């Protein structure tokens, strides 16, 4: 029993974990946070929370917090605590030295989806204006960069089309490569409420997740595909819809680009794109794909063009079909193709532009949407405007008093490659543990060791800090003023509950570094940064702290002349790009093949009580519910290998090996194994390979060919 007492102060802020972005009241007694209670007026959560957010305050004052800046000449030297001025001065002089010796493009920065919009905006500004290059990237590279590319190509902007509450109007819900019950629990509750009211459910996932047959919901269809075959399954769903006449021809004619429609229809109708043709590859019985396609398009698993026409003639309407997807879609070699296949599917059925429908990426980190919005990609300025555009560049040149480079900079994996080639020498990494979160750990650590100045800014001495020369103590969300943007484009305030433990906020550290590099920044509060963002970013033009404080939150696009309170549903009368564009989504099998040596496919996911790499949740009460990553293996595969429940097993891939305890379960199909990645010692990313999405380099975390064999307890 923990005696908490009565709070003396309550501060409304936003959860620092997942992309649902729940509002909370942080309750303070004296100088200590004693609990967090869900904010009943929070539009993302309506007074609900999950077990992660409830106890999030625990890590903020954990004993492992580092509160003093530190430097060292070599990564084998011990750390030396120094003043902020000395640490910043050392980083700046090293960055200047490296640029003088190796060129302007020899350094770069990485922004974090755990930091605020204002902090992220400042880091990309630092890179572009003070470093003088576009070598800025974000941790979204390894999660939702294919969403940015795929939705940009088809609809014209990189964001979910709906507000969360829209799910209450859905008739058919399709969940692809996402496990909201574990990863987005508060949104999952809303979805389940709608399912209990009678909405129908299709789950596309290699694993039998809770939604397939949980305590309160049951899917109509579970398309239990082999990992890596999303594009084949979604394209074959479209094949059924087009060839059986279940498409919404009137919507497509009015809203979509004619030429792309014709080419795409011809493509998906080919026999090689039928469920029967793909059955062997995907492992999903064709009859299930046909039933799911009919259900999504017509509202009935037995729907036909005639039954749909009869229903419409009788005054009925097409069902509202809503798609929700997660990293099980994006983290593949065809991640961007899969996002576009999903976008095609929604367009051809008229399921974009009203309540109850849409295409909705469920974002992993609290501010992954915001970090992408803020210009964290090497090819885009804030608001997803390409750096090559002379007009937009001129706007920033004038505002920032610089001349921006027109060529895109390096993506994170390109930074690693350039480092190993001796061309990339310095990195500023804010709030991101790339050694633990990026694939092929050995490759990442080798690249960091090849650099001469690595500056890590984080709240804990994380795995990446092992390769750092400068450590800047970061701030937790309780020590910040700013904003986060959730998966429904909702911008909410993050309010300071306590001063930064290190005495310097994350945004202030970036300002100090910029000043030391000779590019002065004069902000005295994050609100001024948001004012600059609003002035330079059309989708944020109507965003201000005053408005967010008054309304609780706003959703971008937010513009005082057209959408004063923001926009809950996008693409209502027209797509952002004008006409919706269909893209050919040719299925290409992953290079990550099973062989006799590596006969199983490993895929990964999350559990309810832990968040991402666990750096935060492992330091809260949540550690009592789950303290290790385990390997789920089908009983038949286990029997074949002499593995019993709870045994230690070695997992070997082409990239490396690790050891976990086994859990025997029929949640996974034979030939597929599964693990979570919340604990560094499990080494999940030691065994993932460096293959990645063809368009964005998002790593193919979800498919790794492995062998599993019993081993002695390590
Ligand atoms: Fe809400 Fe996500 Fe935080 Fe849970 S982790 S409280 S669902 S924002």
From TrEMBL:
It comes from the Bacteria. GO terms for cellular component: membrane; oxidoreductase complex. The keyword Metal-binding applies. Its EC number is 1.17.1.9. GO terms for biological process: formate metabolic process; respiratory electron transport chain. Keywords: 2Fe-2S, 4Fe-4S, Iron, Iron-sulfur, Metal-binding, Oxidoreductase, Repeat. Residues 8-64 form the 4Fe-4S Mo/W bis-MGD-type domain. It is an enzyme of class 1 (oxidoreductase). The keyword Oxidoreductase applies. One of its GO terms (molecular function) is 2 iron, 2 sulfur cluster binding. Belongs to the complex I 75 kDa subunit family. In the C-terminal section; belongs to the prokaryotic molybdopterin-containing oxidoreductase family. This is Formate dehydrogenase subunit alpha. It comes from Scleromatobacter humisilvae. The gene is fdhF. The chain holds residues 235 to 948 of 980 of the full protein.
């Amino acid at each position: 029993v923990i005696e908490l007492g009565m709070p003396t102060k309550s501060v409304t802020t936003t959860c620092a974990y997942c992309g649902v972005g729940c509002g909370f009241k942080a309750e303070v007694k004296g100088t200590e946070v004693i609990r967090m209670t869900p904010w009943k007026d929070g539009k993302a959560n309506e007074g609900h929370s999950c077990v992660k957010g409830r106890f999030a305050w625990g890590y903020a004052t954990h004993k492992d917090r580092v509160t003093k800046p530190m430097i060292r000449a070599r990564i084998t030297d011990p750390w030396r605590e120094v003043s902020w001025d000395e640490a910043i001065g050392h980083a700046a002089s090293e960055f200047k030295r490296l640029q003088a010796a190796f060129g302007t493009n020899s350094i770069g920065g990485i922004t974090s989806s755990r930091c605020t919009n204002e902090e992220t905006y400042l880091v990309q500004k630092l890179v572009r204006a003070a470093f003088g290059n576009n070598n800025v990237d974000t941790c979204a590279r390894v999660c939702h960069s294919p969403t940015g590319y795929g939705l940009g190509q088809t609809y014209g902007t990189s964001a979910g089309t709906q507000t969360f509450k829209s799910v209450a109007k859905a008739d058919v819900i399709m969940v692809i490569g996402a496990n909201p019950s574990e990863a987005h629990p508060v949104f999952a509750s809303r979805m389940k409420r709608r399912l209990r009211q009678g909405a129908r459910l299709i789950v596309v996932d290699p694993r039998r997740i809770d939604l397939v047959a949980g305590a309160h919901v049951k899917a109509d269809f579970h398309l239990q595909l082999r990992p890596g075959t999303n594009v084949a399954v979604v394209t074959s769903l479209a094949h059924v819809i087009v060839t059986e006449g279940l498409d919404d021809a009137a919507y497509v004619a009015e809203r979509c680009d004619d030429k792309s429609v014709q080419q795409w229809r011809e493509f998906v109708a080919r026999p090689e794109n039928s469920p029967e043709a793909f059955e062997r590859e995907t492992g999903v019985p064709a009859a299930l794909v046909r039933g799911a396609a009919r259900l999504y398009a017509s509202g009935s698993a037995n729907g036909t063009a005639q039954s749909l026409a009869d229903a419409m003639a009788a005054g009925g309407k097409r069902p509202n079909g809503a798609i929700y997807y997660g990293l099980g879609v994006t983290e593949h070699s065809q991640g961007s193709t899969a996002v576009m296949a999903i976008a095609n599917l929604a367009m051809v059925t008229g399921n974009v532009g009203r309540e109850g429908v849409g295409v909705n990426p469920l974002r992993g980190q609290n501010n992954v949407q915001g970090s992408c919005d803020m210009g964290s990609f090497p090819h885009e300025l804030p608001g997803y405007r390409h750096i090559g555009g002379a007009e937009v560049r001129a706007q920033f040149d004038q505002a920032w008093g610089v001349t921006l480079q027109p060529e895109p900079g390096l993506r994170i994996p390109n930074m690693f490659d350039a480092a190993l080639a001796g061309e990339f020498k310095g990195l500023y990494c804010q709030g991101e543990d790339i050694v633990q979160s990026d694939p092929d750990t050995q490759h990442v650590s080798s690249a960091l060791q090849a650099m001469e100045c690595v500056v890590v800014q984080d709240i804990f001495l994380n795995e990446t800090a092992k390769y750092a020369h400068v450590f800047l103590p970061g701030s937790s969300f309780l020590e910040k003023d700013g904003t986060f943007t959730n998966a429904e484009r909702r911008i909410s305030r993050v309010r300071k509950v306590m001063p930064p433990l290190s005495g310097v906020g994350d945004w202030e550290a970036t300002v100090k570094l910029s000043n030391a590099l000779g590019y002065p920044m004069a902000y005295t509060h994050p609100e001024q940064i948001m004012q600059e963002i609003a002035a330079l970013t059309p989708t944020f033009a109507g965003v201000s702290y005053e408005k967010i404080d008054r309304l609780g939150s706003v959703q971008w696009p937010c513009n005082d002349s057209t959408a004063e309170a923001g926009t809950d549903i996008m693409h209502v009368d027209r797509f952002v790009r004008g006409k919706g564009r269909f893209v050919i989504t040719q299925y290409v099998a992953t290079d990550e093949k099973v062989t006799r040596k590596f006969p199983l496919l490993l895929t990964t996911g999350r559990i309810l009580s832990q968040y991402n790499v666990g750096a935060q949740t492992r330091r809260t009460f949540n550690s009592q519910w789950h303290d290790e990553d385990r390997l789920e293996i089908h009983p038949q595969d286990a029997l074949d290998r002499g593995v019993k429940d709870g045994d230690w097993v070695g997992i070997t891939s082409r990239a490396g090996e690790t050891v976990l305890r086994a859990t025997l379960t029929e949640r996974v199909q034979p030939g597929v194994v599964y693990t979570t990645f919340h604990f560094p010692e499990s080494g999940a990313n030691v065994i993932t390979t460096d293959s990645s999405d063809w368009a964005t380099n998002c790593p193919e975390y979800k498919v790794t060919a492995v062998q599993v064999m019993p081993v002695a307890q390590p």
